[in-house]
Amino acid sequence: MILSKEVVIRHSKGLHARVLAMVVHKVSELEKRHDLKFFIIYKDKKKILATSLMPLVLLKVKQNEKIIVEVHGEDPKEPLDELCDFLQSDFDLEDKSTINQVDNIINNNTITLEHVFSNIPNGIIATDEKDIISIFNEEAERLLGISSGDAIGKKVYEIIEFTNLHEINRTGKSELMVKEIINNRILLINRTPIIIDKKPKGALAVFNDISKLEKVKDELKTVKDLKERLQLILETVQDGICVINSDGYITYVNKAYLRILNEKEGDILNKNIRDVSPEGARIKVLKTGESIIGAISYKENGVIIVSNVNPIIIDGEITGVVSIVKNVTEVQKLSEKLTQVSAKADYLEEELMRTKKPDSAFSKYIGHSGKILDALATTLKAAKTDTTVLIRGESGTGKELIAEGIHFSSKNSKGPFIRVNCAAIPQNLLESELFGYEKGAFTGAIKRKLGKFELAQNGTILLDEIGEMDKSMQAKVLRVIQEKEFQRIGGEETIKINVRIIAATHRNLEEMVKSMEFREDLYYRLNVIPIFLPPLRERKQDIAPLLEHFIDKIGKRINKRITIVTNDAMESLLEYKWPGNIRELENLVERIMALNETEVIELSDLPTYMRKDINTVNNAIKSKNNNEIDMLIEADEILPLKEYEKIIIEKALKKYGSYNAAGKALGLTHKTVAAKARQYGIEKKVTWE
Q: Sigma-54 factor interaction domain spans which residues (predicted)?
């Protein structure tokens, strides 16, 4: 049961310390006698145990003020009335027995309070209104290195240099959570005024040593920084990392691990490895504590990984496992890519060594004749566009030099210039040369190879002798020209290209289109800008400057000089028909300079078939009479074998009208006869049958 009753304090000094000591004594007797608990409530404040002297003193209850007395227990009414009557009495403070009881209570409470101050783990310093130190506990002695005997009764600012208690006492303003370093200790100090009747009557300082806490704080910050750096490192590395605790649960995976295994963090984190990979290396290492290096595993997403799995051992116990995984597929791809790039670099380096970009793109092409100047004018215009160019001309007229000049004068000049001789590569290998192939595309394809179109990316490709390309390859080249894309042999990836295409041929493509040997659509795609290079026999005024150029070029290489070409030698050179064109002239100069022991080229240095006095033989070569062979046989001069071969093949084709019949008559295959006819420029409108 709980009862309460309001009481008016009648004593002239209110409830001061001695009166309250008597009240505490009375309450103690009543509680002991009736097994009750009494509380006092003042001005709507919290209940205070009626036997607690110091809290009651701090209430500062004055005369005629009201308090409420509350009692808890069985049958509390009479004890409550008895205590209330006692509180409203005059309190006889003269009775010796009462005085002794009061003094004992006050003394016991004072000793208790001092004991609390002495044993509290904080330093406590209290001063009165005159700044005299009244309390200086043991912790304050230890922290400040000052004994209480030297401090109590002295002005606080005379004893303690750093103190600010006298200012707190003067201003009545608190200083809270102040950090100060004293005696190599970090102290956290709270300074507050002691307020009595709304006026400062002293000051109190409570402080404690937080040096260890600060050290721990710094260590925690260091650990936090280290953890953040380690986390950043783990997330940056390209190898996958997976950490498992002692119970087999996955506690950490980095981004690389998720990428390699194509997993999501939420799907794998906190899963038990026994459910994920019950027979894997990580379970074995967790059980045995022995590392497994180089474990290979095949994942469902097709990835092959190599793992190094190591136990985490702390104080001799296995506390987890860390697994480092590497995607072998990625390494293989990088290795193949490196091989491709290396091969491309080697190829381009060879090309660069073979021909460096001239100072002027067409400086290598020698000639001043009208036909050459017309061809070069067209070439210069073509170089300013990215349109497909078709260069026409007999073998040895300099088609490759013109193509090279177009490239180095174009916007693609910084890219590679790639040459492909379609006649020099077997047709069954031409596709792989142009488009490349993937590893395993056919027997012997042990690694990927880049094709010439891919090597020419952002540059120019020259398809020389394109007339020798079979029709199946013509269709594939047409697609590249139209779509600017292709696929490697055995590959599925479509490769986009930015390549300028130049084609060259000595063949009559118009006749080949008519005979259905060359695709008409490809012909029109190639023949956007045609450039015709005349044979040397049609530009005789260029023979002299070409001769001078080759004498200088070859002389520097073999360290020989030619200073004079005799008139009869030059006349013979001018009258010769030059079936091999510029290439034949260059080869002639090299042969003469290699064998000549003087600095003069004379008529006798020329081959007999070039000399001016063999007009009869030359006329015989041109003649269409049936006595041609007889005239050649009876001639005094012996001609090169190819001249006889040319006349014989031409006569056979004229007589039999087909490659097959001519081949049977000559004991040759029809393909050989056709090839020889193309070589000598004597193709006829004949059938293959």
A: 365-594
